[in-house]
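Researcher: Structure prediction, please.
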Amino acid sequence: MENDTNEHPAGIDRVFLDGPPEPQDLQPVATMLNPGSKHVAVPLGNAVEAYVNDPTRNAKDSTRRANRDKLSPLVRHFGADADLKGITSEDFEAWTRLLLRLPKNAGKRFPAGSLEEMVKAGEAVRAEPIARSNARGIQQSASSLIDHLVKRERLDRNRLKPHILPKTKFTKPSRRPFTVAELNTLFRQPVFTGCIDEERGFSKTGPNVPKRSRYWLPLIALFTGMRMGEIAQLWTDDVLEPDGVWALRVQFNADRDQELKNPGSDRIIPIHKTLIDLGFVDWASAARQKNASRLFPDIPKSKDKQDFSSIFSKRFSKFLETADLWRDGRTFHSLRHNFRDAVRDADLSDSVAKVLGGWADDDPHNQYGRGYKIEMLKAAIDPAP
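Model: Predicted structure follows.
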């Protein structure tokens, strides 16, 4: 209704005086009233933001940021205003061919322009294209977005799915534990025995053993099975002594930028006697007495991924390279594999191992009760080799 009753008799709306509108002036009712109609466009940019921020998806903030990054090549190519309903199978096929030519780190090296312009800029300097598996990962993220919209009846079908690249025949080696000889090589490096400093001189022999992140994180991972991110986000008060047993607390605390990988990751882990003998508890207690908040303040938060593990991961990769241990699936996570093998060799039950390592436990029987006492876990972990 126009609701214009001025200067008309008896307050009658003008729409009734002028008569019905001409047929060409009418809009389809479905467009006006039914947002799920096939006549309604699905703008790509809006769809990506709605998908990334969808509260019904159980995803961490870091996962949502990674989703947005992986969907960026889709938006760059077709445009934020592009109607997903109008993107054809042939369009997705052409986009796939372009993805395979996309240079490595294109977003940082060539931040401006369309996807095609990024490809041309990379080829002009003979930049190496991204791995086929990475192109496939971008496709899969886009396909997940489209499946999400199909499930909600915003799209009729997934036209990208037939063009998803098959898995490559050869993949990089999966992560594996370090051998005993490799562990000896690792912990005989200057950062543990004496180096110049913990920055550029960490790999050069010197008189100092600066006990900070480079020193403690590998040792903590080996003797507790903790993930890199779990250790890097610790605060000084996460080193605590419940029931007379020194332990580390892994928890979710948004105000302190502490996250969990899964519900089973929330746990209290007894500190192995070897770590105590090395002075870890004394070192952490001294930091707390100085009113320090984070246990490892020398690990900054990543600006792009907004986590504490990304930067240290690069540092540790450089450390492995200097020790000639960086090939064949050896990473920081290998230390977690070593811990799992150690508790297995100590003949600990699978449920105890899952509690210690924060692995998800699908056994419903283990969801009952209060769990293992910290004294029992301490007695179990100390004898582990």
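Model: The radius of gyration is 28 Å.
Researcher: Thanks, that helps.
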